[in-house]
Amino acid sequence: MTVQTLRHGWVLTLRDLKRWQREPWTPIIGIAFSLMLLLTFGYLFGGAIDLPGGGGYLPYLLPGMFTLTMLFGVESTMGAITDDTKRGITDRLRSMPIAGVAVPLGRAAADLMNSAVQLAVLMAGGLVVGWQVDGSIGAALLAAGLLLWLRLAMLWVGIYLGLVLRGEGGLMAVQILVWPFGFLSNIFVAPETMPGWLGFLAGWNPVSATAAACRGLFGNPTGTTGGVLADHAVALALGWPALLLAVFVPLSARAYRNLTR
Q1: Which residues cross the membrane (predicted)?
Q2: CB-based burial of residue 113 (10 Å sphere; 0-12 exposed, 13-18 middle, 19+ buried)?
Q3: Of 70, 101, 138, 182, which has the fewest Cβ atoms less than 10 A away?
Q4: Over the range 33-46, which residues count as b (16 or more CB within 10 Å of their CB) and which as e?
Q5: Taking the alpha carbons of 48, 54, 56, 60 in that order, is the dihedral positive or negative?
Q6: pTM of the predicted model as reported, rounded to 2 decimal places
Q7: pLDDT at position 248, please?
Q8: Residue 176: which pLDDT band, with cuts at 50, 70 and 90?
Q9: Do residues 93 and 216 make contact, with C-beta atoms less than 8 angstroms apart?
Q10: Which domain, by its residues, includes 187?
Q11: What is the DSSP code (8-state) at residue 118?
């Protein structure tokens, strides 16, 4: 990736950020929705679920909710890409002498900045309701980095889907499928409490890897007493997003170059 491509991507990043300045309700509603989920699941299920290995449910839940919010980057970014295509903005950008990957790169960078703010607000909300970070500052920063690393991968998945599935039906299908993918993980309950085959699938969900790694780094209950999530959570939390990026960044660049009305 050349310096010129990065420069073009940064200009487009500023364009997307300025759009949020004019229309701030989109990121605000996203943050409010995540806070609502956090409070709903935290207070409704807080005293009703026992964890393998012991520990309170609220400190187990919060890192999972942070991870779930990062997963939602798929549908929000896909919606933005679809909207730009319908309004003809993407066609105007494609007519300019800029690198093909610069446009999706600018979108990903802007969405990642928005995600960092959203994550900070969620963590502050978690501290207000009683969540605690019992790990070191360095470990907590690494956990935040892993969350944003997952978000970056999900953004590129959303960019690709927004370029190839531009109809309303495609966006609706992704919005529906994100929830089962998020629930089939360790976000709300430990995979060890699930039937064997279901627990296996949940354990190998990329979302589960990030959630388990963050719980350990934050010093919160992990809900695991053995297995791959107990032994290699950080490695998986690094590896899964890297694999997704290796697949979807070039796919997104090619889909953008081949885009037709």
Answers
A1: 25-45, 57-81, 140-163, 169-190, 197-218, 238-256
A2: middle
A3: 138
A4: ebbeebeebbeeee
A5: negative
A6: 0.87
A7: 93
A8: confident
A9: no
A10: 3-257
A11: H
